[in-house]
Write a structure and sequence with these properties.
Number of strands: 4
Distance between the termini: 139 Å
Oligomer: single chain
């Protein structure tokens, strides 16, 4: 039955109810999830578990693999640091030995143990000067007041190029006549033993 358009409204009738601000109009469901049409809403629903057969679901991180990677990185880092430390230790030890050898040589010369000082020269240096000539030259320096009274060997250098290593150790040497001279001694290591190859001539 069609309503009569000329029918007057009933003044006692209740007006139709309008939907409130938080109440969806009749016939509409809950608001859909965010995202374009046809796409599942962002974020997994509450209580969803990982499904390995779902190609659209990101795999869960494997804790064992991450932990193993962390241990590997830590181990490699410790090995690298340990290798650097060992290399630095041997380098400092080698440099220290060069200074010790020169100090021992100068100590023998200062105390006039010339024969012992001669044994600290390299074979190449001994081939160019006999023991008696070495002792006579140093004794002559003592007689004219040019004997060694003190020394301070601090500057040490070691370089390796193409398998050939050069070693030097130098410092100030003071003499009995009041003179002071900076002397650099060259060292070699034939047969694994450090020895002095040059620089000692300035003491004569």
């Amino acid at each position: 039955m069609t309503d009569d358009p000329w029918k007057k409204p009933d003044p006692n009738a209740q007006p139709p109810q309008r939907p409130g601000p938080h109440q969806p109009p009749p016939g509409y469901g809950p608001p859909p999830g965010y995202g374009p049409p046809g796409q599942m809403p962002y974020g997994p629903p509450s209580g969803q578990v990982y499904d390995p057969n779902n190609p659209y679901q990101a795999p869960l991180p494997q804790r064992g693999s991450i932990r193993r990677l962390v241990w590997i990185l830590l181990t490699v880092g410790l090995l690298v640091l340990g290798g650097c430390g060992v290399g630095a230790y041997f380098l400092v030890r080698t440099i220290g030995k060069s200074a010790d050898e020169v100090n021992a040589f100068l100590r023998d010369v200062r105390d006039q143990r010339f024969d012992t000082a001669y044994t600290r020269l390299c074979p190449s240096a001994q081939a160019g000067q006999s023991s008696s000539a070495f002792v006579q030259a140093l004794q002559s320096a003592v007689d004219r007041g040019h004997r060694v009274i003190s020394f301070d060997i601090k500057q040490v250098n070691t370089n390796s190029t193409n398998g050939f290593t050069t070693r030097t150790a130098g410092g100030r040497v003071s003499f009995g006549d009041g003179g002071t001279q900076f002397i650099t001694f060259s060292l070699q290591k034939p047969g694994g033993n450090l020895c002095i190859s040059s620089g000692y001539q300035l003491l004569e």
